[in-house]
Amino acid sequence: MTGSGVLGGRYVLLDELDRRGFGPVRRAEDRITGRTVAITEIAVPADGGGLRERLLAEVRAAGRLQHPGVVGVLDLITDRAPDGALREYLVTEHPDARPLSRLVDGVPLTAQRTAAIGRDVLAALRTVHAGGGTHGGLDPDCVLLAPDGSALVTDLGLARAACREPGMFAPPERRDGAGDTPAADLWSLGAVLRYAAGPRIAAGGPLDRAIAGLTAAEPAERIDPDGAQALLERAARPGPAGADLGASRWVLLAVAGLLLVAVVAMLLWATR
Known about the structure:
Elements: E1 6-7, E2 11-16, E3 25-30, E4 36-43, H1 51-63, E5 73-80, E6 86-93, E7 98-99, H2 100-104, H3 111-130, E8 143-145, E9 151-153, H4 158-161, H5 172-175, H6 182-197, H7 206-214, H8 225-236, H9 245-270
Antiparallel strand pairs: 1-2, 2-3, 3-4, 4-6, 5-6, 7-8, 8-9
């Protein structure tokens, strides 16, 4: 990066974005196309550590994906930071969206909104998996929320390329050293949804069942994507916190019964 704040002779660096997934993220303008992009700065180990080769492999895989819920990867540039050290800079699309981690920030979301986010993220992950890849590091910083409520997934493969240590959103098998799999991504999705909803999850409701199924300890016991999608769709329906109609049926019947008793009592009183 030159002293003028231009990366690779092409991207004019602007303000810093409210994201901290893998390093500082800046908004930038592409001098050639005029479009606004996001640039993530990734520190390079002193010995290189094969980071660029791993990043290139992930960028090529991510660049082939076409899905509205996946933030597109545009470029990878090696340049020097102001301190003189080498950095890798990942250039991606810059959607008008905020990371889930900043939106929650100690204030859990409703079950309905959490389920809608899960539905969108699951759809994006299914496209990644269908292409033979995995995310490999899904967490609340990697889920971006647009003003219309839709969710997008970013930072595909970055945790794997940067050899990032597994965190609290990594499944048990990844913390034990196992490789990345679609089942591991599903576990991370369940952990992200539990984080987003906090204590607002109704026991036995569709969101609760989806999260429990996604985060089963054994990969083979986890709910399949179709089953998870059906539960998340049900929980995302408009209603009292995405409540399951079956779970509230008896409450509705009880209320109807009380109303009937009240009406009958009023009629009897009126005819006296």
